[in-house]
From TrEMBL:
GO BP annotations, alphabetical order: 'de novo' IMP biosynthetic process; cobalamin biosynthetic process
Domain SAICAR synthetase/ADE2 N-terminal: start-end pairs: 6-231
Reaction it catalyzes: 5-amino-1-(5-phospho-D-ribosyl)imidazole-4-carboxylate + L-aspartate + ATP = (2S)-2-[5-amino-1-(5-phospho-beta-D-ribosyl)imidazole-4-carboxamido]succinate + ADP + phosphate + 2 H(+)
Enzyme Commission number(s): 6.3.2.6
CDD domains found in the cross-reference section: SAICAR_synt_PurC (cd01415)
SUPFAM superfamilies xrefs: SAICAR synthase-like (SSF56104)
Keywords: ATP-binding, Ligase, Nucleotide-binding, Purine biosynthesis
Main enzyme class: ligase
Family assignment from sequence similarity: Belongs to the SAICAR synthetase family.
Protein name: Phosphoribosylaminoimidazole-succinocarboxamide synthase
GO molecular function annotation: ATP binding; phosphoribosylaminoimidazolesuccinocarboxamide synthase activity
Organism (species): Desulfotomaculum copahuensis
Database matches in InterPro entries: SAICAR_synt/ADE2_N (IPR028923), SAICAR_synt_PurC (IPR033934), SAICAR_synth (IPR001636), SAICAR_synthetase (IPR050089), SAICAR_synthetase_CS (IPR018236)
């Protein structure tokens, strides 16, 4: 496998072509951003940790019958993935009020929701990733109705598995973001699953073990990412 042309560089990853048109190489970065890029910094070893955590979780989800873009982890910071046509809809699944949900609905952070909330955001840095609904998705032709039904079903299945898995490791899965794409006519789970894209709290102390430590200047950011890998990677 040869690393080829740089296709895309985002806030947390670089994506390269390979000599196989069906696969891309994803390189995870230590760069960190928050508030739609208004806050920037570096988290030591974040790229390596997010690569390992995402690889482990994708492999576990594959065993549960959830198709992902993972092919294999090929180095500490690099993952070989199936080439996806990314659907520009970010899917956020919420079990407990935090972040923007708490602000929008006037809920105290940490309030459990009576029913899991699934939200969609238009993936657009220029517009600040606005909240959208099924009608917006159809109006902009971002994805078909059957695709969105499959995406919602998969997102809830991911939530069911991850909540159980994290609970066994003394973690609360507060909420998380997923991205999906098309590959040879199939919808696959893509991007990453990591402390960058999930809110993880310790079950007893409610200590935040995710990117919120960077967003809110709480300190101990690197240690939080390492703690997640310790709980997930050694079990």
């Amino acid at each position: 496998m040869q690393k080829g042309e740089l296709l895309y560089e985002g806030k947390a990853k670089k994506v390269y072509r390979t000599d196989d048109p069906d696969t891309y190489l994803v390189e995870f970065k230590d760069d960190a951003t928050a508030f739609n890029g208004q806050k920037k910094g570096t988290i030591r070893d974040k790229g390596e940790l997010n690569n390992k955590i995402s690889t482990r979780l994708f492999r576990l989800l594959e065993k549960e019958g959830i198709a992902t873009h993972l092919v294999e982890q090929i180095s500490d910071r690099e993952m070989l993935v199936k080439a996806l046509e990314i659907i520009p809809v970010e899917v956020v699944v919420r079990n407990i009020a935090a972040g923007s949900l708490a602000k929008r609905l006037g809920l105290a952070e940490g309030t459990p929701v009576a029913r899991t909330v699934v939200e969609y955001y238009y993936k657009s840095d220029e517009l600040g990733d606005p909240l959208i609904n099924d009608d917006h998705i159809a109006a902009m032709n971002l994805a078909g109705a059957s695709e969105m039904a499959a995406i919602r079903k998969t997102a809830l299945a991911v939530n069911d598995f991850l909540r159980r898995y994290m609970d066994e490791r003394n973690l609360i899965l507060v909420d998380f973001k997923l991205e999906f794409g098309r590959h040879k006519g199939r919808i696959l789970l893509g991007d990453e699953i990591s402390p960058d894209t999930c809110r993880f709290w310790d079950k007893q102390s409610r200590e935040k073990l995710d990117k919120d430590r960077f967003r809110r200047d709480l300190g101990g950011v690197e240690e939080a990412y390492q703690e997640i890998w310790k709980r997930l990677g050694e079990n």
